[in-house]
Amino acid sequence: MSRKRTDDGQPEGREVFLARLVDELREASVLGVVVMGEAGAGKTTVAREVEGRSGPGAGILRISGRAVLSQVPFGGLSTYLRGMPAEALTQPAAVMRRFVYHLSGSGAPADTLPLLLIDDAHDLDEDTVALLVQLIAGRKARALILACPLPGLPQGFEELVADGLLGAVVMEPLTAEEVGEVCSSLLGGPVVSAVVHIAAHITGGNPRFLQSFINEGVASGYLRERNGVWHAASELPPVSARLTDLVQAVLAPLSQEERDAMTLLALAEPATGNVAHTLVDQDVLRTLLDVSLVRMTADGLLVLRHPLYGAVLRGVLPTARRMGLERRVLAAMTAPPRDDDEVLQRAALALDAGVAMDDDALLSAAAAANRLHDRRAALRVLDAVGSPRLRRRRLVEMAWAESTNDVGVALELVEEALAPGTEQPALRDAIILSLILMERGACSTQDMHAAADRWQHLLDGASEDGSPSTERENALLMTVVRHAVRRSGDTGVLEPEAVRTIAADDTVARQTRIVAFLVLTVDLLGRGLPAEAATMAAGALELVTTDADTLPLLDLAAGLRIIALLAAGEAEQALSAFHSFYRRDPRSIFHCAVWEDVIEGTRALEEGRFSAARSRLLLASEALQTSDLLLILPWVRGLASYAALLAGDPESAEALLEFKDGARPAGSRLARSLAEVYTQSVTAALSGDPDGAATLVLLADAASGEGLPIVAAAALDQALVLGDRSVLPRLADLTASFDGRKQRLVHTYARAAAGEAAGTSPQDNGHRLLEIGEAAVASGYRPLAARCFEQARETFEQREDNAGVRLALQRLAACTGGMDRPQGAHGIVLPAGVRLTPRESAVVKLAVKGLTNREIAERHGTSVRTVEGHLYRIFAKSGISRREDLLPLMSED
Prior knowledge:
- The protein is mainly alpha-helical.
- Helices cover 60% and strands 4% of the residues.
- Residues 1-12, 488-493 and 823-829 have low confidence and may be disordered.
């Protein structure tokens, strides 16, 4: 969508709406259109665009309402009444004659009515409205009328709408997609998804608010550019003075009673109907709902139209008055809290108002804040917890609060909680958090085993005076922890059956079962069973409640489910999971919106949209440097580098392989192993290393030995991409036990390409490859489909089956029609989905330089026959038949 700006630089983002408006104005059955939209929605700029598109001689007269003239008779027409005697201005007939004179001189074609562009109609005086209504109803003019819901459309125009003489449209806020486009346009570069979601949440899609948010964000340093990508410096920014002024202007027409109601709702939102009815007069509430300053959510809760309204109304309250109002709101909240959000809301109100609150409730509120990634709120609430009895639990919650900010500080806090005498619940919480933090901090296997031994000792000591059930819970937890520690290192894999039994046992504590499910998820992912892993992650999510024991594990469970679904080739389900668990919590956006870029980038890569994949994965790579809850940055950087290579962007591909100070980012073992695969593949492709495929085979050997067959399969697949088809039988064997739609397709392809399908001939294998390719196209895996069709063509060619060759080429052309054209390692442009090996790329470069086959063979230390074989395969892949046709394949560097 193209972006336009008003004279003051305000982005419109209104092309779709504008097209609809133009169609409405052309409708012969009506005499004009009323456009309703909040202040800042862009009504005026759309009207100017309508005027501009109408061109000269269109017969347009502009009329603007102004608040200072709203009580002056015919004040809205003052521009057209200059020079009239004062006594004539009190005579409607005289005013009508003067204005009709201007209408007749408007230049409208003889068969067209003049068009009245009436801006800010809500500020017009009654006399002007009556005159304009008379002209429109008498078919003397058409009208485009712009007005805000507050104070609303003048009655005369409302009657024209009710009579069907005027159409009516509502200018809705910008969608999230449009907000993203405006952000990129204003900032002049790509923007991470977190910024887009934060901007959409804060501004409610209001273009004027959005422009101010962007401008103030850049000026204050809240919005920052790194490596050409724009980021947010923190979760939510403070409301700027400019945004405060804009909101105050929008709310200026409110009566004092209405403004007081808005202020109370700002403190109480999201408010239940009972709370709202206790605090606010019902007639006032209905008015605020009618003008859309207050809205009802899908859950039946009342909130202000924009979060920005609430932030401003709360921010401008004097301290003493605010405390009094907060006490009123707390007094109205007589029902038990609905969820953890309300627990946190009540704690914040109590702290602001100086109202005492139970320490256990404060700890629950801190857990809620941690779940929402609201570190400042969590630490503020925890600072109010004074009971010595809760000291260790408080330390654990403080560690959770710091875990996304500084892993070192979080580890220090949790270590303080891991001491003899710590009560059982807090001790188990501390062990689980310490395990997560040590993994996040990339601690060595030796350190993690030593830590596990110490945890075991602490639990044994705590169990001495405990009940048999406590001893059992501690033993089960350590069984799960020991398995997790073994999975995080290189010392082999424990049999997961014991952990699976614990996860399925509903007599075991929820917290232990959730950890068991998560450990199984990671284990199954590494073993190439992502579909089953996604089921395990879903099992963990079902057990997460709002209590402090399980709530902090929500992010891990939701993130692992997304990763498992992506690995299984279920990008749509992964996106649905993201929307379910994250977008409902605006305070989590900063940390979690990166999943959207990861999901869309991965899907684009699998669909052959390499440029889109590069863009989204680059954004994800940048965002993960700020917040990487699941330690996936190395894997995403590797994918981004690979996508950049396929998109013909070797500079970005190479840059993504470089790390400051020579240190690679911390990551889980699975993420680091997958990153190594893509790093080696891209490096070999960029350098033309003929031994790149052999190195990938060695990586596959190492991954198999470490119990990570999914990494081994990825390494073999990349060796295949580099031209080593000898790995096909091994790839087929390795993936035979894998699950997930994507993995099953890779297995059937590898088996058919290796000629291992039982009872099939080479000819049958060609047709089998065509079938698999069609299945890959149907599933959206076009590069894999292209590989199937290309190998089917070769199979038919070897059998001299010309009909089969033509069929394979037709399928290949149809498949690659919707794909980007990837480039070989040395800038050789090929049909989409086709790759040259590094040795083939080197042969092309020498052949283009004019070297003979013998000279090329001498350069490479090989035989002339081998060079001829390379050229034959190059000709077949690129669809040419002569040496001279190689030159056009070379892209311009």
